[in-house]
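[step 3/7] inverse_fold.run input=structure_tokens len=340
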């Protein structure tokens, strides 16, 4: 029987050496030490031994059981450590690996231009106001002295919502809103979207942006208007820029002018960019507020006078950043936008 016990021990140790998982270890424990295990079976047969033999065999059997139990525990711990090591190895984080790049956006060149314009005008003492994109015909045309037969009133130039409501065709209705609400002195700018039924080409878009300026006070003159425009152009584009005022007609200003700035590329020499003229595309309209408009808004033209201007922000951004096609500003192509 002793031999049988030693053989069981040998066999159990051999099995333990081969095993790979804790589940297999449990199988070995059941096979040798479980209720129906091989060693338990042998112990049950001890009754058949003589009285003299029993204690010695019993002692051996108990020692082998203890040895196997402790060996099982050691193997269990060894397997557990190995599993943990393997898991850690698999889940190891390589902190030297480059991380996922976070794509940080930046201001759109149009918004950057709008904010820069607002900042220049704020530094000149102007306040910022906002007006709605959906306007009344009254504010967009009537109060601004636009004659009934003015071409921009025509359905082909204006997006009408109803007979009396439209998408504003310029930011000038903000003038009306401000003058109706506020007593002079008034000194405001207002930037935002405007809409016209214009065909798209390199410098025209049906949705574009304007910045309106309005100054109303006592003794405001054309000289103040020219000085204001001149300073803002120089602040924005540099002090070597020249401005040119061309007489023009707007129903709401008298006299009126359109303003060009010297070509950004050749600075007035004449190049392919400006078709040899030395001047950039038309950037803004301006003039002295028509007395009729002041009157329409409840301001006495005998006491007050004013000037107003409306800049095309998209075109200013184009000149500033050397963009030759207005469409690029609205296509949201990252290859274009990431250049700014
Ligand atoms: C006006 O809209 C007047 N309200 C400006 C004004 C305000 C005059 C106050 C006097 C006093 P005009 O239609 O010229 O004017 O437009 C002004 C500017 O908007 C143009 O010089 C141009 O820079 C820009 N603009 C006009 N139409 C478009 C368009 N379809 N796409 C892009 N920019 C445009």
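[step 3/7] decode complete -> sequence:
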């Amino acid at each position: 029987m002793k031999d049988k016990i030693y053989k069981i021990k040998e066999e159990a140790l051999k099995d333990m050496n081969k095993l790979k998982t804790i589940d297999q270890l449990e199988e070995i424990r059941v096979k040798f030490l479980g209720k129906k295990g091989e060693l338990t079976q042998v112990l049950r047969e001890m009754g058949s031994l003589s009285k003299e033999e029993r204690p010695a065999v019993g002692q051996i059997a108990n020692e082998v059981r203890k040895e196997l139990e402790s060996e099982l525990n050691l193997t269990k711990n060894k397997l557990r450590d190995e599993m943990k090591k393997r898991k850690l190895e698999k889940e190891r984080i390589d902190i030297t690996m480059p991380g996922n790049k976070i794509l940080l956006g930046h201001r759109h060149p149009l918004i950057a231009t709008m904010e820069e314009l607002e900042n220049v005008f704020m530094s000149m003492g102007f306040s910022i106001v906002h007006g709605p994109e959906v306007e009344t015909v009254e504010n967009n045309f009537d109060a601004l002295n636009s004659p009934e037969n003015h071409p921009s009133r025509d359905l082909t130039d204006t997006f009408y919502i109803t007979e009396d409501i439209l998408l504003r065709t310029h930011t000038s209705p903000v003038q009306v809103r401000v003058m109706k609400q506020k007593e002079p002195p008034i000194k405001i700018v207002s930037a935002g979207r405007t809409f016209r039924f214009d065909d798209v080409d390199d410098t025209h878009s049906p949705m574009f942006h304007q910045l309106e300026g309005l100054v109303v006070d006592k003794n405001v003159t054309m000289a103040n208007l020219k000085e204001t425009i001149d300073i803002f152009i120089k602040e924005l584009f540099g002090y070597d820029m020249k401005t040119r005022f061309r007489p023009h007609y707007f129903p709401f200003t008298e006299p009126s002018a359109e303003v060009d700035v010297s070509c950004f590329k050749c600075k007035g020499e004449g190049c392919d960019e400006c078709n040899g003229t030395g001047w950039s595309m038309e950037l803004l309209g301006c003039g002295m507020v028509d007395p009729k408009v002041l009157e329409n808004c409840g301001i006495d033209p005998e006491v007050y006078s004013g000037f107003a201007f409306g800049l095309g922000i998209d075109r200013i951004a184009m000149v500033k950043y050397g963009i030759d096609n207005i469409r690029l500003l609205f296509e949201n192509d990252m290859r274009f936008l990431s250049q700014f």
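[step 4/7] annotate
Residues 2-90 form one domain.
Residues 53-90 form the longest helix (38 residues).
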